[in-house]
Design a protein that fits this description.
The complex is a heterodimer of chains A (496) and B (481). Helix content of chain A is 76%, strand content 3%. Chain A has 496 residues and is mainly α. By secondary structure, chain B is mainly α. Chain B has one domain. Classes of the chains: A mainly alpha (496), B mainly alpha (481). The A-B interface holds A 65-69, 105, 108, 130, 133-134, 137-138, 141, 144-145, 148-149, 156, 160, 163-164, 167-168, 171, 174-175, 178-179, 181-183, 205 and B 328, 366, 381, 386-388, 392-393, 396-397, 399-400, 403-404, 407-408, 413, 416-417, 420-421, 423-424, 427-428, 431, 434-435, 438-439, 474-475, 478-479, 481.
Chain lengths: 496, 481
């Protein structure tokens, strides 16, 4: 476990090296980035192998950092953070593989990419609210440049919108944290902040600021609009990370900071959040159903699936929250895969993402690997048993039912919507021309799928399948973590 | 005079070094270098000046913090020492930028005036008495007017200097009038006695007039709304090293002086000083006006000027909390803000030809000079308050102190919440700069590489490095207080 901080340092060091190497050779920067990402992932796996689940955060490092401001350099992990750092390592490695064709300013690209990854690891490992916040901002800033420099459709608009939304959200978080600290008088360590004491009225205000601030990045309806435009504008690996990991930062912030610190606030806001989450699931699903841009379909589907995470958090029982964490992992893997197929495998070859153009191409013949990958990823996204989405969404719905059956029923409609928009996109993009029609006019030859793409896709598919078949691997980490006193103050019993 | 002239001379050793350095630079130039090309004379003078500043740093450290000296004229405490070192460091940076800038017709005089300005600014940092404070302020201001108008080839420079001088002269008159009223009320020129009148919640009409006069001058000096009108023109028209000095060291010294004056006689043990609501209004107006008007700017220097006005609002919040939370957050904020804006002006000066400075002139900087682009990214992100750069902790420390002072519903706490919300607005215009610098392709006719002169590169890299270092270890400065 004590290795885990090295994920941050490795990524930071790798960022500097990639920047230096990129000035001379793009290939060197690429391999360095791959080595760094894989090494970080390796560290998380080694840590996972040595992990004994238990309640509460396991401190990795706790050192005075800025005593004048009450900020400590306190890194810690529990089963929830471990789940998410493993996801980060996996998504980072796959993302490098899907960025193999970045030819322009390669060194800078991977430097920013790894800087972002370092920030993400930092957020998942922070046990000091302000350290968490600092890492959170460190993860947001590189997004602007990744999208604005290497992106596509309306990239500068998408990048600016994304960063301003995230930054406005983080301003709310900062305001809430400063208020809480002014009221509690202690430092920013999560344990200190949780000790309070806050009045119920204060908690309602603080919870609103902190939860809403983080939830903006998790795609809470109606503050989700940055997500589809940002996803569409971003280069493939950036949208993979954005949907796969960065949106989880928001949900993780809600879970780690807002919920345990201000339980009385949750009690007041619970129905509002739950209904907004349900609205997001349904609205984004409905919008995804009518999109013509393939990437927008996936972008809205991300918002819809993240709605399940938020619903799980709002339901506030161990089963639903456990499901939410599992869904974070599952969606991180599946959304990454979907974006990889759309952005890297299809768009980089056909240079169009319009479904009405794609349906004119017999893509299932031209890119069979992409078609198979998308079908599998689509099935996983729809929540087919055997893939990770199934246990996650099931747990969330069952947990939500316990809190309020109406929420669960409404959200279940979202599962049907997800099947509808995924199947529609699948049909139009890959199977628009089948049978005799596929061979009729000569189709343009597309470059074959390269090895990094195959490797990345197999990694992600394998992970989804593994967790789909053995969800207990992760639930055995997550469950005991939710038994910690901090979480027990908000959650109503029941093992996931 | 307890301690006599010897103590005074010891306390003023850094200023003596600066003035001696200025005279030495002028003398050496007059005696030996008159026939040399201006560029060489500029380098030589900047070298002498840099040595003088380094000597002043050493002397300031040697003087240390003896407390009140020279019969209460100077207070050499932690705040004074930190502000003196900050001013000297920022002056060194401005000298580096000046040494790399194209030399004008009188390069040595330019450098000498910079040193005079620095002497005035370090004195401001230590003054504890109205008379000395006014003299120091005027020494610094007159030098800065000169520095603004030094580029005689451009009418904008002269226009800026005239505007700065007229506004500044008016502000000085206000200040002097306010000071004379304060002397009349208290019969003293010591900060402690005068500050008590300023801070009294209900001090009578005369005290209110005096307070108003002082705050107008203060508002002018730090470019707080509604006394900010000179700033955009001066920042745009002044030569880059002058603008860098005005935006950094002069701000730091100004905040130090006024925070010291306003808190000198604060009611002990809680109680709101009488000037607090007025300063709160200035802070709120600056935050709002600076951030919103900056959104519409197309000229980098004007944009930086409006960003400076916005930062002035946040720094005023630091002044409001300084008496209770200590001067650490204010000084840290002012110093790191100074570093970032010094650097930003240095980069803009190196990139844009005189007169040019539109946002588009920065296009493709990442290709034309990766060093400048990387440094500018650090400066701008620090101004925007992105952790782990120093600018974030400055804002954070000030806002935390404000919220601690009176909660989210009090004037300081409420302003802090507004300021936090406005940081998201500010990010937009900062990203506009970085969009040109790092994202946009270089323009076709203007894509040549930019050669950065050695001293300027050194100053910029040092400033950027310090911003990162102080961002990772803010306690290096905060721990002093």
């Amino acid at each position: 476990m004590n290795l885990l901080p090295w994920t941050i340092y490795l990524s930071l060091g790798g960022a500097l090296l990639a920047l230096a190497a990129g000035a001379r050779s793009a290939a060197a920067a690429r391999w360095l980035a791959l080595a760094t990402a894989a090494a970080g992932w390796g560290v998380t796996l080694v840590a996972a192998a040595r992990f004994t689940p238990g309640p509460g955060l396991l401190t990795l490092i706790d050192a005075a950092w800025i005593p004048e401001l009450g900020v400590r350099y306190h890194l810690a992990a529990d089963g929830i953070s471990l789940t998410l750092v493993v996801l980060t390592g996996l998504a980072a490695t796959a993302g490098v593989l899907f960025s193999w064709n970045v030819a322009e300013r390669t060194g800078e690209y991977f430097a920013l990419y790894l800087l972002l990854i370092a920030g993400v690891y930092g957020v998942f490992l922070s046990a000091d609210a302000l350290l968490l916040f600092a890492f959170y901002e460190l993860a947001i800033a590189p997004k602007y440049f990744l999208i604005a420099i290497w992106g596509s459709t309306r990239r500068e608009y998408g990048a600016m919108k994304l960063v301003l939304y995230s930054f406005a959200g983080s301003a709310l978080v900062l305001a809430g944290l400063l208020w809480a600290r002014a009221a509690s008088g202690a430092g920013f360590d999560l344990a200190d902040l949780a000790a309070g004491p806050y009045t119920a009225g204060q908690q309602v205000g603080m919870f609103a600021l902190v939860f809403l601030g983080f939830a903006v990045l998790a795609g809470l309806f109606p503050f989700h609009t940055w997500a589809p435009t940002g996803h569409v504008a971003a280069p493939t690996a950036a949208s993979m990370l954005l949907a796969g990991v960065v949106m989880k930062l928001g949900a993780y912030g809600c879970l780690r900071v807002a919920l345990p610190l201000f339980p009385a606030g949750l009690a007041v806001w619970q129905p509002v959040i739950a209904w907004l989450a349900v609205a997001g699931i349904l609205y984004a699903g409905a919008v995804a159903l009518v999109q013509d841009d393939f990437k927008f379909v996936i972008g809205y589907s991300s918002v819809s699936h993240m709605g399940f995470v938020l619903l799980g958090l709002a339901a506030a029982n161990a089963r639903a929250v456990g499901g939410a964490v599992l869904q974070m992992f599952s969606h991180g893997v599946i959304a990454g895969l979907l974006f990889a197929v759309v952005g890297r495998m299809v768009y980089d070859r056909t240079h169009t993402r319009r479904l009405r153009d794609l349906r004119m191409l017999p893509l299932h013949r031209l890119l069979p690997f992409a078609a198979v990958t998308f079908v599998l990823a689509g099935l996983a996204s729809m929540g087919l048993p055997g893939f990770s989405g199934f246990p996650a969404e099931l747990l969330i719905l069952v947990g939500a039912w316990k809190t309020s059956p109406v929420w669960a029923l409404a959200a279940a409609a979202g599962v049907v919507l997800a099947a509808a928009f995924t199947l529609r996109a699948m049909q139009l993009a890959f199977f628009g021309r089948t049978g005799a029609a596929a061979a009729a006019p000569p189709a343009p030859a597309l470059p074959p799928i390269t090895w990094p793409e195959r490797a990345g896709a197999l990694l992600l598919l394998g992970a989804s399948l593994l967790i789909g078949l053995r969800p207990d691997l992760l639930l055995n980490w997550i469950g005991p973590s939710l038994q910690s006193p901090l979480f027990q103050a908000v959650l109503k019993g029941g093992a996931p | 005079m307890n301690g006599g002239y010897a103590a005074l001379a010891r306390a003023l050793a850094p200023e003596t070094a600066l003035v001696a350095g200025a005279l030495a630079a002028l003398g050496i130039d007059l005696a030996w270098l008159k026939r040399h090309p201006v560029a060489a004379r500029l380098r030589a003078a900047a070298g002498v000046a840099a040595l003088a500043v380094l000597a002043a740093v050493g002397l300031a450290l040697a003087v240390g913090r003896p407390g009140s000296v020279a019969g209460g004229a100077l207070r050499l405490d932690t705040l004074a020492l930190a502000a003196r070192l900050g001013v000297l460091g920022l002056t060194l940076g401005a000298l580096g930028i000046a040494a790399g800038a194209p030399a004008g017709r009188n390069p040595v005089e330019y450098v000498a005036v910079m040193l005079f300005a620095a002497a005035g600014l370090t004195l401001m940092a230590a003054a504890d008495q109205l008379l000395l404070a006014f003299l120091a302020l005027e020494l610094a201001s007159l030098s800065l007017y000169l520095l603004t108008g030094f580029d005689k080839t451009r009418p904008e420079s002269a226009e800026a200097a005239l505007k700065y001088f007229l506004f500044g002269g008016m502000a000085a008159a206000f200040l002097l009038f306010g000071f004379s009223l304060l002397y009349g009320l208290t019969g003293s020129i010591g900060f402690a006695e005068v500050g008590a009148v300023l801070a009294a919640p209900r001090g009578g009409a005369l005290a209110a007039v005096a307070l108003g006069m002082v705050l107008v001058a203060f508002g002018f000096k730090i470019a707080a709304a509604p006394f900010h009108l000179w700033a955009p023109d001066v920042y745009q028209g002044a030569p880059a090293p002058s603008a860098a000095l005005i935006a950094s060291a002069s701000k730091l010294a100004g905040y130090t002086l006024f925070a010291r004056l306003l808190w000198a006689g604060a009611p002990p043990g809680g109680g709101t000083p009488g000037w607090l609501p007025v300063v709160a209004v200035l802070a709120g107006a600056s935050l709002l006006l600076g951030n919103l008007v900056a959104l519409a700017q197309t000229d980098v220097r004007r944009l930086l000027a409006y960003s400076a006005i916005a930062h002035a609002g946040a720094l005023l919040l630091g002044v409001m909390t300084a008496g209770r939370a200590g001067f650490g957050p204010l000084l840290y904020y002012a110093a790191t803000y100074g570093l970032a804006s010094l650097g930003a002006f240095g980069v803009v000066g190196a990139v844009a030809r005189p007169g040019g400075g539109r946002l588009e002139d920065l296009a493709g900087l990442h290709r034309r000079s990766p060093l400048l682009a990387a440094c500018l990214a650090v400066f701008v992100l620090s101004l925007a308050g992105i952790p782990p750069l120093a600018g974030f902790w400055g804002k954070f420390a000030v806002f935390a102190a404000a919220l601690k002072l009176d909660g989210p519903t009090g004037p300081a706490g409420g302003l802090a919440l507004a300021a936090i919300a406005l940081t998201a607005v500010a990010l937009y215009y900062y990203l506009l700069i970085l969009k040109q610098t790092l994202v946009a392709a270089p323009p076709s006719g203007n894509g040549g590489r930019i050669a950065v002169p050695g001293p300027a590169a050194l100053a910029l890299v040092a400033a950027a490095g310090l911003l990162v270092l102080l961002g990772v270890c803010p306690s290096l400065v905060l721990g002093w207080f």
